[in-house]
Amino acid sequence: MSHPAPRSRLAVAEAITAVLEDVAPLPAERVPLADAHGRVLAEDVVSPVALPPWDNAAMDGIAVLAADVLGARADAPVVLRVVGTVPAGGAWRGTLNSGEAVRIATGAPVPAGADAVVRVEDVTYDGDAVLVRDDRDVRPAPGARHNVRPRGEDVAEHRVVVAAGTRLGPSGLAVLASVGCTRLSVVRRPRVALVASGDELVPLGDVDAVRAGRGIIASNTVALAALVREAGGEPLDMGVAPDRPDALRERLQAALDADSDVLLTTGGISVGDRDHVRDAVAALGGRLRFWRVRMRPGGPVGAGTLPRASHADVPWLGLPGNPVSTVVTFELFARPLLRRLSGDARPFRRAVRVTLREPVDAPAPLTHFLRVTLDAEESGELAARLTGPQGSGLLTSAARADALLVVPEGVTALAAGAPARALLLGEGALDAAALDAATFTEVRA
Asked: Which residues cross the membrane (predicted)?
């Protein structure tokens, strides 16, 4: 079967669109609630109960009729008769009448007849009586059920409480637990086969080989495995393939046989004598959607699909072998693919506006992705600074980065102080080493 010729030298946005073409979420599976953190809901969850399940007190105090305490002052307190107590988890079955009060704890059901709760700080008990010394809890709007949280205020009964496509964090899990969920239908995690290519690659820990000049440690697989997990996938390390067409084909076939959902290769994708990945993909009947993107680092990147007899075609991404190029192309192409497969409605890294604190050059007619650190300044601006030299083989430049600064194609330089955009990397990209005390004392525009 023949395939259309692959496109080449695509713009970055075109390449991302091509990678995500025809990609749909994987099938769902049911998992225990405790195992659902970071997973994406496959279906809406409808609450069988209202939350809170009853009108309840927003604070400790006394349940009253608001009209009884309106006008209460320290020098003219209102005296009510205490007729009961409602602890947390308890209830008072009577109906409150004018001139009466019930002691109540935060979260306890508000008795019938009561329409307000007076905070405990404004009352004094005297035997079976209680003196209300301030009417501030009912004065602003009489009849508004002050300090009473109404039934269903948080979650309405028989309504969607968490929608399909939501990636579940701690608070979302707490909501689902509170409405009685014990198992959830979530999108299956994509299984991602990782194949590194190159005669120069040696196993982890083989520092002697590095010292002797016999090779470099296969660190890309370590980075990719971590990136895959962060993106919601399950990495399958298929090892290193030598720079021989037959060996590479065998390793790719093994990756397909491992029931993977995505195949990622690193290295062997450029135009050198030992770059055999594209030929291996073609030999296995694969379709190459594109090869080469107008970007730096990471220009020699390819994407396509590989056939598998018993399943749908498997998406394949051929990432460059230079360490920084591997990371950058994963972020731009592989991560959105994995997030889309896992059902995430927001598969892309967040782009933020930044201000450069040093000039940058980008002379080639490409979209450049520079590794930068970010600092929040008192002005409210995010200041971006290069992590150091930006060579595609300098992995430390990526290790120190909070974000990828985007220099669009056609822009050859940006001056210090210029505005720009940057793609945040990782959940902690904007975490701070220390807390600004003014955070809790000042409001800044």
From this structure: none
